[in-house]
Amino acid sequence: MQVGVLQFFGWRDRKIPLEDVYARALERVRVMEETGYDAIWLAEHHFSGYSVCPSVHVMGSYVAARTQRLRIGTAVTLAAMQHPLRIAEEVALLDVLSGGRVNWGAGRGFDPNEFRAFGVPPEESAERFHEAVEIVLAAWSQDRLDWKGRYHHFEDVEVLPKPAQRPHPPTWAAASTEPAIAWAAQRGLSILMDPHSPHAEIARKRNLYREGLAAAGHPVEGRQLPMARLVAVAETDAKAREIARRGAQWTVGTYLPKAGLDFFRGGEEILDPVDHYLQDVAIHGSPERVVDTLARLQEEIPLDYLLLSPLSEKTFYLFTDRVLPLVGGSQ
To answer: What secondary structure does DSSP assign to 277-327, as a single string?
Structure first.
């Protein structure tokens, strides 16, 4: 199993300086560089303490300057809200400066506040996202770009620099809904899978994606498919469950209202989303229990790339010391 970290920059307690949030994250980067992690995947969000990282490209440049081995992923660049030529330039520049270590993940976004502030009608966001991804890939692959689409028109544009990785950095599309999975499969893009779906739903979506790839004539094997999972690790199962509960409460209070999600199980609405996270979404327990859970999910889903979203600092360090050596890694 390969393991990367989905890095949020959550600012839960405004009494703590935001600089401390960044310092803790960058200390994680130092540890990841020295251990068996594959990549750090940086989460872009705007106008919220859920994750204060408005530019994954700027943050990625800082990470690149402090590392030599670790790959740098975006999870995700909110492509529907930015000019695609600017994305192409910035990600290519990051790829050059990092020595070809970029994993480019792109997504549509979900937060109505972000769409409103950036002037993107939500009903246009999916088509804007699709067109932006196509433009970025074309800008990287072609010497000069001509484009005539619904939202963008360019003639004879030379986008520089070109990425260090040719023809372009490996690319993923965030896909948490069936239409998003179908589009990525038809296009032949690999997918990033969300941290909020139950394990069984992740398995079902992965099967849909594999079927879509095969139907479109794209190879299925040889792909990294990072699957984000919320994880809490502590010395005992009870302590880990409490960490997971606090993380679930924070997620339900800050993420769900923005995403506008309603949860259902077996056709019935879930009345307690926190318990839903504890039972069906988050992985929590002692190091030994988490190792066993990951081994089971590796078989059931299969979970071959864990995109770890730690629910506490202690979780990250216990996972690094006592789980990562037993489940895999890149070192």
So the answer is: IIIII-EEE-HHHHHHHHHHHHHHS---EEEEEESSHHHHHHIIIIIHHHH
